[in-house]
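This section describes the prediction task in plain terms. A model, or a person checking by hand, is given the sequence of a single protein chain and must write out its three-dimensional structure as a string of tokens. No templates, partner chains or ligands are provided. The sample shown here is typical of the held-out split.
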Amino acid sequence: MKCEMARDNVILAYYGELPDELSGTLEQHLMTCEECRDELALLQGMETQLATLPVAEPTPNFLAQSRMRLDDALDAIPPHGFLMRLRTNCFLWLGHLRSAPALATLLVGVGFIGGNFLNRYQVANAPVPHAGPTYSNPAQSVIANVTGIERTPDSELVQVHYNRIIPETVEGSLDSREIRELLLKGTTAQAEGVRANSVQLLASECKAGHECPAREDGTGARGALLVSLRYDKNPGVRLKALAGLESFVDQDLRVRDAVLESLAHDPDAQVRMAAVTLLTPVHRDSSVRQVLRNASTSDENPYIRTVSYNALQGSDSIQ
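The expected answer:
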């Protein structure tokens, strides 16, 4: 607030005419401006001096002369233009509304209902923006770890909670590069729930035929699933990783070797069963047949031994 405006507001505030929304701004200005504070002090001093003087009552002749001069001045005012008459009529109409509360209530209700329908129409017909992820606190720092993952039902939106210097949350589509990078970090999180959710989302994307690259350095969604299959301590996470790698067994040797390693050495029977099922399309491969032969004779689970034996018999009949 500038000093010129502040001095005008000081006068209004002194006589109690200043609107409430300007009071805080004026107080802040007075705290930093000595000249405006002096202006307020002068007003207060003048009021104190005027209070000591006696109040003189105007004579009847003086009042009569003043009224006559006021009437002459009003008669000398030129006729108002169209805009002024329109403004005056608006105020008169508002005055009539004040005297008819039922009509005013009806108009307010009609306006509220009309505005509600208009807002719904605009929301329903507004184009859906394809914006990038929205961050709760976009701090420029290194991501430390992923702390939680939530997917909105029946949509592509995923919320990934992660830590930088302070906890943050990002929401975006599974197709977003930022979301995918966070999901890759989530596969190595300390919390089992975070790892399971990250692996499940990446696996579902790979199964759906979305981007699931096989990079030479082992990074990317497929590489993260391979790492989870080999090293994650939670059998549920390993099962989810197997499900995401199913479509790559017959085309990626690294995936095939990881599935064979799971069949041969994974301590969980369900993971080994799932590995046998995934190897069905490649039963005729010599390395696959060797692992199946070992499983059919030495696996501690009789069901896995039977399934492995049947797979070998099926591949022999095919050959």
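For orientation: Residues 255-319 form a domain with the Leucine-rich Repeat Variant fold (CATH 1.25.10).
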